[in-house]
Amino acid sequence: MENLFTAKYKDDIIGIMSSFDRQLYSGSLIQLTYVKGLERHLRANHILLKDFKQYAISLATELKQNAYKLAKENNAKFIYRPDSKQNNEELVKEIIKQRGENPGLAAVITDLETDYGFDIESSKTENKIELKARRRKCLHIYFYFIDEDYGLCYFRVQTFFPFKLQVYCNAHEKLALDMKRAKIEYTKADNCFTWISDINKAQQLSDNINVRSFHSKLDQWVERYVPILETLSKVWAMKYHWSIKQIEYSTDIIFQSEERLNILYQQLLNYSIHTVNPEDIMSFLGKRFSGKQSGRIQSSSKRTYMGFRIKHQCGFLSVKMYNKAGNVLRIELTVNDVTQLRVYRKVHHKDGSVTKEQAQMEKSIYSLVHIIRFGKADTSRYLDFLSKMEDNSKAISQISEFTNRKTLNNRNYRGFNPLNEQELLIFQVLLNGALIANGFTSKHLKKYLSQYVKEQWTTSKISRLLKRLIVFNLIKRLKKSYKYFLTETGRIIITMFLKLRNLTVIPALRILLNDLRPALINS
C-alpha cells in the first residue's frame, strides 16, 4: 500500500500488512423474517395460530437437544449464563488454554438475550388472535469452536422464530493458518503480526479471498448446528441468506523499534485530536461534506488495555488508530452498515429493467471484495493526512540528553526539566530577540529574568545558571569578553522544549485528565 506516511518513515518500518480483522455475519431465513411470510409458512404446514407457540417450542427443543448432543460428543463444556452482559470471550480463552488449540467444538454457552421475534396477541379491534413482530427475550445458543481454516469462531443460534444466526470470526486467525500452510514464518501477538518473513506473499494470501468457499463453509455450519432447517423446509425449501453485520479492515504498519513508535505515536495522537475537523473525517471515508449526512461526525479518544485509541466517526463508518503489541501502528476501518458505502453495480428496478450505476453496497457477503478496496483507499487517505505532521520524535530523543544529570570536573550539574515552569520561563528569556541579536552579559540576563521570573536573582545564582547552560552546550562565552551567545544546539533544544510543552505535553495531560475524570468523580 503506497502512501505518503510510509514513504516518510520507510527507514523505520519493517513492512505493512492489510487484512480483515473482526467479522460479524448475520444469517436469515428471508421467508420467516416478516409477519406475512411467517403466516404463509404456518398455513402451508397446517399450523393454526393458537398452536404457533407449541410449534415454536418443539423446534427450540430440537435445537437445544442438538446442542447437548454435540457438546457431549466433542467433550465440550456446556454452560448456561443467565446474564447476557457477561463476557464469553475470556471464559472461552480459559477453556481453550486447558483443552489446547486443536480443531473442534470447545464450548457451548447459552444465555437469554433480547432479539427480534414473534408472538401471538389478541386483536384490539377484532375478536381474534394475530401474529405480531416485536422484540422479546429468548434463549440463544453459542457454539465456540476452532475451525481448521478459520481458527476460533462462534456460531450463535436464536431458539425462536425467525431463528436468526450470527457468525463471528477473525481474519487474522485465518491468515495465520494460511501462512503456516504456505510455510511463511511469523510472530503473532494477540490479533496482529509483529514480524512476517515474507510480507508480500502474506499480503497476497490476505487479498485472495474466496467468498464462495466461505459461503460453503457457512452452509456446513448451518447443517451441523441448525438441524431444524430440514423440518422448516418440508413444504418450501429454505436456505439461510448471509449478510455482513459488522466488519473491520485493518492496516498494520510494523516498526523496527518499539521506542521509535511510542514517541511517534504520542505526536500522531495529539496531531489527530487537535487538527482533524468534520471535513477531514468525510474525506478519509471518501465522502463529501455537505451538511446532510445522517449520523454524528465526531472524533474521540479512549484509553484501552493497549494504550490510547483515537476514533474518527461518521454515522456507521469510522477510522481508528492505535498502537498494538509495542511496534505495530494499526489503522482500522470499521463498517457497521455496508449500505453507507456506494459502488458501481447492477441495479434491478421495480419495472424489471437492469442498469449499471452508482448505488448503495449490498449487504451480501459477496460485497467483501469491494470492502477491501474501500479499506485500503480510506486508510491511505488517513495516512496521507498524518504524513503532514511535523515530526518531533527525533528532537525528543535528543532532548533526553539535556534532561539527565551531567558531571564535569567531579561536579554534578542537574538537567533541565521541560515541565518546570521556572525553567521554561528562563528559556523564553534566552530566546528574547534583544539577547539573541548582540549576545548578553550576566547583567543583561539578570535584568530580563527579574522581569519575567518572580524570584530574587543574585549574582551568584546567575553565575551558577550560566555555568549550567555552558556545561549543557546551550550557550557559549565569547573569548576575552563577558558576553554570552546561544549556540546552534541551544537554539534548537530550547525551541523544542517550548514547542513540545505546548504541542505534546499539555495536550497529552489533557487527554489523561479527561480519561481519569470519571474515576476521580466516582471516588
Question: What features would you highlight for this structure?
Answer:
two-stranded antiparallel ribbon; alpha+beta; 17 helices; 3 domains; about 525 residues; elongated; eleven-stranded mixed β-sheet; Arc Repressor Mutant, subunit A
Beta strands, count = 19
Largest sheet: 11 strands, mixed
Number of domains: 3
Shape: elongated
> What class, by secondary structure content?
alpha+beta
Give a verbal description of the structure.
The protein has 523 residues and is an alpha+beta fold. It has 3 domains: 1-23 and 242-391, no CATH class; 30-162 and 209-239, no CATH class; 393-522, Winged helix-like DNA-binding domain superfamily/Winged helix DNA-binding domain (Arc Repressor Mutant, subunit A, Orthogonal Bundle). The protein is 42% helix and 30% strand. It has helices at residues 4-8, 35-44, 52-73, 88-99, 171-181, 199-207, 211-225, 229-232, 258-275, 278-284, 368-386, 393-403, 421-430, 433-438, 442-452, 459-471, 488-522; strands at 13-28, 77-81, 104-122, 129-147, 151-158, 165-170, 186-189, 192-196, 241-255, 297-304, 307-314, 317-324, 328-335, 342-348, 354-360, 406-408, 411-413, 475-477, 484-486. It has an 11-stranded mixed beta sheet with strand order 2-3-4-5-6-1-9-13-12-11-10, with helices on both faces. Helix 13 crosses helix 15 and helix 15 packs across helix 16 (459-471). The longest helix is centred in the C-terminal third of the chain and has 35 residues, at 488-522. The radius of gyration is 32 Å and the shape is elongated. The two termini are 47 Å apart. The mean pLDDT is 87.
